[in-house]
Amino acid sequence: MAKFSSLPAYILGTACLGRGLMALVSPREEYGHVGLPLESQVTTVSAPPSDDSSSIDGSASPLMYFKGIREISYGMTLVALQFQENEDAVTTVAAILSVVRLGDGLVVWLRGGDKLRRKAMGHWITGIGFLGWVTRRWILRP
Known about the structure:
Blueprint: H1 7-25, H2 27-34, H3 63-83, H4 87-111, H5 113-116, H6 120-139
Helix pairs in contact: 1-2, 1-3, 3-4, 4-6
């Protein structure tokens, strides 16, 4: 089995942990970071927010706490698997994370509204970055 540098897994895992903590500590502010408007009192699933909706009005959904816990669990998983030197598992989790990031970008693109839609690019760039790292690890496997 090829021995990869542990640094990227630790950096990416720590970044996921940090993002998760941000969502738990400041769920309202996290909406702007991820590219979604705050929840209004009445939310319809069928229509994205209008251009005149303000991300200042509204409240943070309890789902933002789920997002925080999700990010923390991803970070802990990457760090723990790297610590155990389980290279195949690190690669697999990173592949799953790339799909998650691409999916998050799609949600932001479809539901973020015109003002926040550009934030989808950040999710997609991160997803493609993870995918590039995964591809490199797969290619270099013995």
